[in-house]
Amino acid sequence: MSKISINDVLQLVEEQLPFAAEHGFTLESLGRGRATVRAPYLSKFLRPGDTIAGPVMMGLADYGIYVALLSEIGIVPLAVTTNLNINFLSRPGPHDLIAEARMIKTGKRLAVGEVEIFSEGSDTLVAHVTATYSIPPLGSEQK
Amino acid sequence: MSKISINDVLQLVEEQLPFAAEHGFTLESLGRGRATVRAPYLSKFLRPGDTIAGPVMMGLADYGIYVALLSEIGIVPLAVTTNLNINFLSRPGPHDLIAEARMIKTGKRLAVGEVEIFSEGSDTLVAHVTATYSIPPLGSEQK
Amino acid sequence: MSKISINDVLQLVEEQLPFAAEHGFTLESLGRGRATVRAPYLSKFLRPGDTIAGPVMMGLADYGIYVALLSEIGIVPLAVTTNLNINFLSRPGPHDLIAEARMIKTGKRLAVGEVEIFSEGSDTLVAHVTATYSIPPLGSEQK
Amino acid sequence: MSKISINDVLQLVEEQLPFAAEHGFTLESLGRGRATVRAPYLSKFLRPGDTIAGPVMMGLADYGIYVALLSEIGIVPLAVTTNLNINFLSRPGPHDLIAEARMIKTGKRLAVGEVEIFSEGSDTLVAHVTATYSIPPLGSEQK
Predict the structure, then answer these.
(1) Shortest CA distance from B13: residue in chain A
(2) Tens of pLDDT along D42-87?
(3) Percent of chain C whose predicted confidence (pLDDT) is above 90
(4) Of B97, B8, B102, B14, which Cα lies nearest the Cα of B59?
């Protein structure tokens, strides 16, 4: 079971993750080590080619892995991304993006997650992401 | 010499790169295969730890490499990122970010660039990025 | 169904992939867009900590994705890796390594695959890899 | 000044880095946070296209960063790679490879290095690598 609730995430986003808040990212579902997040389509996301800008996908993936990680370790706001690698696979059109994040390893100091990003209504993968988070030493900043 | 002018970039950003426009990214200097871009500090960029959110840095790096690439191949709006890898090295405080992008290989079909991101007033690297762009076949979309 | 046979791969390895041959890598199974490959344990693979050296895992992953790609496009020896990103998740002991490779996107010019590497007899992931291959234009080198 | 000597590295390679030893990798020069290493050409390195196999370059880069890191932190054999990202830029012919590694951040727990790989006698970059090492807690395994 997740160590955090959807409400915990909503509060975190509102208070502390303005990037997610500003872009309207939402949390669709939450499980232990898993999160599905959504970027509701906004015309400001577009770039040349009528496709959604890469940074929106990178931000959405980062948000998804952050939530998936917190579902395993609880609310540790100072967990930070140390590496993110994204492969852009196809160009999403002007639709919502859905990102399915899951942790593939959660260690004491480092955690690695993977995200698959889809365009709503299609099962073609639009981007694939892996990211590493650094977890601060216990006691140093557990909320 | 750059194949594009600073005005070309400003027009491109305004018309076609709303992510860069919305976040207030600016172009500081431009050379053949090189661009220095800036993210003027906005409080909405912050995340827990009083540091700037990763997606802002990823977006800034992507913008810098895009401009550096266009400086070598001219205005090809449909050049798209295929891979971006970022290492976050230290936590930038609430200051402007400066990103120095340069192409390390510009081939016919693929181009690879590198970006170093600094926090204004410090020479400590805050993030290091490499990214690959796919260049559409000649004639297919040259503007 | 795979466009190549296990025999095609064995011949390719023997004639053209001395790195795989020299390290004794074997092909365990082959499907359309999928390959499972093995690195039988050799003491020369060890590094400090009684764990298997990273380059062995990188080489095995690269080999697995190459075979998975050829299973979709046929024998195109000049398909080359353009990017490989590996996350090392836990330290494999002195055992065989098994790598499960699958393509996540096979386009006309670029293909992206993913590999999960396990240590024989354990279901703990030891490494996760994504890699991009560039596919040469049709006709230029199809064997 | 480097915290280790060339002799320290030679001993480490012979005793503990069979992958480097087996492939004949050599150390050309060593400075604080920097190392230049070489893969003398061997015909077994070739892959289709008369070019050197990717795993040789990945192994050489990993070795170079390992040495560059130890030059800053001393002999800590259990420092391990957690992430490596390589972009292959051009195909090296049958010549020695030279890799210039330098640390771009050496923290207490994580260190990130960058490597440029050249083919002997040419100043065209053949590959670019970034890699992250995890440094074990002090006292736990300092030799």
Answers:
(1) A47
(2) 988 887 778 899 999 999 999 999 999 999 999 987 889 999 999 9
(3) 71
(4) B97
Write out pLDDT tens, residues A79-95: 899 999 999 999 999 99
Burial state string for D97-133 with b = 16 or more CB within 10 A and e = fewer than 16: bbbbbbbbbbeeebbbbbbbbbbeeeeebbbbbbbbb
Chain B residues closer than 8 Å to C109 by CB: 109, 134
If one counts every other C-beta atom within 10 angstroms of the C-beta of residue D143, the result is 9
| Cα of C84 vs its chain's centroid, Å | 11
On the question of pLDDT at A22 being above 50, the answer is yes
Q: Which residues pair with D31 in a beta bridge?
A: D34
**B134/C83 CB distance under 8 A:** no
The Cα angle at residue B35 between residues B29 and B36, in degrees rounded to 5: 65
Q: In a 3-state reduction of DSSP, which class is residue A6?
A: helix
Between CA D89 and CA D109 the distance in angstroms is 31
Q: Distance (Å, rounded) from C-alpha A83 to C-alpha A76?
A: 18
Torsion angle in degrees (nearest 10) through CA of D36, D92, C71, A128: 50
* Contact partners, residue C141, CB within 8 Å, separation at least 6: C76, C77, C78
Please give the mean pLDDT across all residues of chain A: 91
List chains adjacent to chain C, taking adjacency as at least 3 C-beta pairs closer than 8 Å.
Answer: A, B, D
Q: Angle at which helices D6-16 and D54-73 pack, to 10 degrees? A: 130
Chain B residue closest in CA terms to C109: B109
Give D36's strand partners. Answer: D29, D100
Q: How much is the pLDDT for B140?
A: 54
Dihedral of the alpha carbons of A108, A35, A37, B113, in degrees to the nearest 10: 40
D14 near C CB under 8 A? no
CA distance C48 to D81: 12
The residue ranges of every structural domain in chain B are: 6-134
Name the burial class of residue D52, with classes exposed (0-12), middle (13-18) and buried (19+) by CB atoms within 10 angstroms of its CB. Answer: buried
pLDDT at residue A140 above 60? no
Q: What is the pLDDT of residues C89-128, one digit of tens each?
A: 999 999 999 999 999 999 999 999 999 999 999 999 999 9
**DSSP labels, chain B:** --SS-HHHHHHHHHHH-HHHHHTT-EEEEEETTEEEEEE---GGGEETTTEE-HHHHHHHHHHHHHHHHHHHH---TT-EEEEEEEEE-S---SS-EEEEEEEEEE-SSEEEEEEEEEETT--SEEEEEEEEEEPPPTTSS--
Q: Report CB contact under 8 Å: A82, D110.
A: yes
Does the structural domain A6-134 have CATH classification 3.10.129.10? yes
